[in-house]
Amino acid sequence: MKKLVMSLAVLSALGAASIAQAAPADGAKGLIKFTGVINADACQLTSPSGTVAGRTLTVNLDEVSSSALGTEAAPATSGTALTAQAKELDLDVQCATGTKVSMTITPSAVSGKGIAVEGGAENVQIMLTRDGKALDFTTGFADVAASPAVDGKFRIPLKAYYTRVAGKEVADVKVGPANATVNYVLKYE
């Protein structure tokens, strides 16, 4: 009986010791930091016409022959046997319910009524049209109203053309990269 009691006492002590050792020890410690910004944007811009990263829409106008360039007065008419090439530029604006939207587009640089290009091409600009009518940037910006909303989404249907600068002929065009940027501001009420 003494052996039994003694055996139980030893087993009990070993069990308690193993339980005490099984408790986890603290390891690496650190901090989780959350950052962000809350803004008052009631709308977001997307487009099937390009890629959106953050708040930047990139649209590839592709390579265009200088002989296919339209004019500032008629962006869709090249005046040669080649057809002026347009890039559909559908801007979709998803908004909170009940929001009314318009957009102001401001080129980094203006060329006549169009958007000045940089990169090497000369006597070339980009013209934006809506419903066949060119947007006029002579004031430094153009305001564009959105179409009525469908399921909370507004569409601003534009077309982008490379054109010759006003008064320039095809022979005046210097070929090369023709890049441009415009800022946009969504206005809503």
Notes on the protein architecture:
By secondary structure, this protein is mainly beta. It has one domain: Fimbrial-type adhesion domain (Immunoglobulin-like, Sandwich), CATH 2.60.40.1090. Helix content is 11%, strand content 35%. The protein is built from 1 helix and 13 strands. It has one helix spanning 2-22; strands at 43-46, 51-53, 56-58, 70-71, 86-95, 101-107, 110-111, 114-116, 124-130, 133-134, 142-145, 153-164, 182-188. Strands 1, 4, 5, 7, 8, 9, 10 and 12 form an 8-stranded mixed β-sheet that branches. The chain has a 3-stranded antiparallel β-sheet with strand order 11-6-13, with no helix packed on it. A two-stranded antiparallel ribbon has the order 2-3. Strand 8 and strand 9 form a beta hairpin. It starts with a helix and ends with a strand. 23% of the residues are buried. The model has no long low-confidence stretch (mean pLDDT 84).
Which structural category do the helix and sheet elements fall into? Answer: mainly beta
Count of DSSP strands: 13
- Please give the domain count: 1
What is the straight-line distance between the termini?
91 Å
Write the element-wise H/E pattern from the N-terminal end onward.
HEEEEEEEEEEEEE
Show unreliable segments: none
Largest sheet: 8 strands, mixed
Strand content: 25-35%
**What's the alpha carbon Rg, rounded to whole Å?**
32 Å
Structural shape = elongated
Note the total helix count: 1
Q: CATH top level?
A: Mainly Beta
CATH H level: which superfamily? Answer: Fimbrial-type adhesion domain
Q: What is the averaged pLDDT score?
A: 84
